[in-house]
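#structure-requests
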Amino acid sequence: MKLHACLLSLSAAALLALGLPGPAFAESAPYESYNYDSWSDAVPAPAAYLPEKSVSGSDLGVGDFVEPSDIAVSARGLLYIVDSGNARIVVVDGDWRVKSVIDRFERDGQPDGFDNPTGLYVDEAEQLYVADSGHSRIVVLGADGAFIRTIEKPSSDILPDGFAFTPLKVAVDKAGRVYVVAKGIFEGIMQFDGSGAFIGYVGTNKVSPDYAEYFWRMLSTKAQKAQMVLFVPTEFSNLDMDGKGFLFATNIDPGSREPIKRLNPSGDDVLKRFGYFDVAGDVRYRSAVGPSRMIDVNVRESGLYSVLDSSQGKVFTYDHEGNLLYIYGGKGSQRGTVKTPAAIEQLGDRQLVLDRGRASIEVYAPTRYGSAVNKAAGLHYTGDELQAVPAWKEVLKLNANFDLAYIGIGKSLLMERKNKEAMTYFKLGMDRDSYSVAFKRYRREVMKEHFGTALTILLAAVAAYALWRLAGRRLLRGGRSAGPPPPWTSSKAKEG
């Protein structure tokens, strides 16, 4: 018994050293925690987030949710839940107390309501933009739930004949422009101005054609061509807006190397992708599961953003430069796993994953490791490299395989002009470009430090060489001016 207790204590201590809870770890984290190194190999990592609780409609006292499809958090910290099957919006505060249930509103003196709402966005003024899919419209409500206006089916020459407006997701920028992901629209994200007028598409997905299939299409009959895959862009799946007015969007193409975009007001993708690999979820995956399918993105503070993968129910979090920070979550039947993930949001320091299959919201709390990574990445985003060093060192205590921590410390040393030490950390972090910069600076530093000594030695060597040459010439001239040779050295004497 003493040996058994000792082993349990050691196991608990080891888990606590990783920032994880002890005996409850197996129950609390029913998923593997890992990340990828610079060689794109999966390496173990401590869990960045652990499941805290699961919240259903019954837990809130409003009855079971029925196929919920979206969640949104307002600037005031209110959580809005789109309960599609019940055609309502449930509003709760940060303590999970129900504030209101919006299932009807008054429009022009007449009662009105939702029909299969599927998306929601809350702007800075707490106005609600609801994608009322069943009624083919966007409904705009005030913070008190009062009706403001609707955005109906647009009319435009660029829309095809027989176009059916079925909005699925919605987002709004600071200028009041409304962005809509609509069903069956492959041209891009629909854009409306502040008055609700349709003004075009943004962010069209690019498709790389299969040239082998293109060749066979040239040789095929009309019937055969009809059976072939068309080269059409894929649909977007969800939207979110960051604090600078840039639109984040995800698409559902599993073969895309750019399933996540950050669109500027002109519709250009400006997402930074400076990491070791694509910002596309899992780098390696089982063929039976397939690549990640990104269905939602949550823009967080300090340039971080988390993306929800519907294939495996995982959450991938990246920094503003496109570096993968951590992965957590998974599909399953245990607490903390999901069945059919639908949306992701941030409430305080907790992350929320809406599970459509279980009709619940899974709440995840950051661990010591996850908090350290978030803090270090945030300080790096604001340029406080020196202040980020303690956080990066905390990360390395918990995970010695985290390359970005070495790189972060190396950058701080580079700012302090400790180039030689920076080279060591960049080497550990496999950052060749930064290592080259540190090496050039260190080489310049060494040259500058020893330039005087080297120049003195060089000048002394040149002077010594010059004196040696001068002495040699004088000896030669002295030999030539000694007078005529003695008679016995003449040619005739030599012949005799």
